[in-house]
Design goal:
2 domains; Rossmann fold; 10 strands; binds pyridoxal-5'-phosphate; four-stranded parallel β-sheet; six-stranded mixed β-sheet; alpha/beta
């Protein structure tokens, strides 16, 4: 693999399975739908960030760091996987989590990923806004200097060029999956937010020359054009680490109409997607990312976007650990 040229620490169960969703595909009556099970990456509940952390942890160790610091919303899946990666790799971990989601439930500020962060031994600091989160980082940096500690600061979502290498590696895995299963791939789809997943996939497919169409479903950014620009920029920075040809703006496909009111606020369509997947395949999605992502796939299939004799691949990026803090989004069904 091209991505083997860059050092990583093994944290994930790879390759993840690619599963054909037989009952779900039959229910929709369109193309064959497959799912890449990155919810099964194996570390403390799984999810897409574990692939990125394999490269980030290796870089942190190479720099002589002893503490991983990262950011996210209160119910960040990335934060939980960073806490788990730190535990497994023998680092300390500080999570700076910001109250940025307007959803309220009895366990939103204590359960789900927040509970797991604490069980995993992370030092959790809560900020009320981005400015306060930067102040907390400044304090941590000063304290680290005084105490001789070395921090490795991971951006939100692990979406640096080094982190995105994890998804370039996933693209290589997918090329193999597609060959073995003889797929006629119309598109690879997934929820997109901090851009590392989509950027890494584009860089990886560019590196292998397969150039599959990747369609992100925007679940967090009000400024769609800025999101697309960030995906392309990060893809090309990541691709440069692999000597991959740069991707053009016409390779960046993002659907912006499935986010609903805001990041972290469930949509009726996302909830319907979660229930449909659960009831046809026994697979759990989440209301913040993968449920909204899947609602985009379902809508596009219903609009007839894809040829019936083609294969559409959804990457399940994880998020299941937040389902229970959204209990009040599911009524009594
Ligand atoms: C479950 C889940 N899906 C998708 C994403 C989006 O991935 P990315 O931030 O790489 O765009 C995230 C990021 O936080 C996530 O937690």
């Amino acid at each position: 693999m091209i991505t083997d040229l860059i050092h990583r620490e093994r944290l994930a169960h790879l390759p993840t399975p690619l599963e054909f969703l037989q009952r779900f595909s039959a229910h929709l009556g369109g193309p064959r739908i497959w799912m890449k099970r990155d919810d099964c990456t194996g570390l403390a509940g799984g999810g897409n960030k574990t692939r990125k952390l394999e490269y980030l942890v290796a870089a942190a160790r190479a720099e002589g760091a002893d503490t991983l610091v990262t950011f996210g919303a209160l119910q960040s899946n990335h934060a939980r996987q960073t806490a788990a990666a730190a535990a497994k790799a023998g680092f300390s971990c500080v999570l700076i989590l910001t109250r940025r989601v307007r959803w309220q439930s009895t366990t939103y500020e204590s359960g789900g990923n927040l509970l797991l962060d604490r069980v995993l031994g992370a030092d959790v600091r809560i900020a009320n806004d981005p400015a306060e989160s930067q102040e907390i980082l400044g304090t941590l940096q000063r304290e680290a200097q005084e105490n001789g500690r070395q921090l490795y600061v991971i951006p939100t979502g692990g979406s640096s060029p080094v982190g995105a290498l994890g998804y370039a590696r996933c693209a290589e895995e997918l090329d193999h999956d597609f060959r073995v299963n003889d797929l006629n791939v119309a598109a690879v789809m997934h929820a997109t937010s901090s851009t590392g997943t989509q950027a890494g996939l584009l860089a990886g497919f560019s590196a292998t020359g397969s150039n599959h169409k990747v369609i992100g479903i925007n679940v967090s950014e009000a400024d769609g054009a800025a999101l697309e620009g960030s995906i392309r920029a990060l893809s090309n920075e990541t691709g440069a680490l692999l000597d991959a040809p740069p991707v053009g703006a016409d390779s960046v496909h993002v659907l912006h109409e499935y986010m609903g009111e805001d990041y972290g606020i469930p949509t009726a369509e996302g909830r319907a997607a979660i229930e449909l997947l659960a009831r046809t395949e026994g697979i759990l999605l989440d209301p913040v990312y993968s449920g909204k992502g899947m609602s985009g796939l379902i809508d596009r299939v219903r609009q007839g976007t894809f040829d019936a004799d083609s294969d559409v691949v959804f990457i399940h990026t994880g998020g299941g650990p937040t389902l229970s803090v959204y209990d009040n989004a599911f009524g009594s069904t």
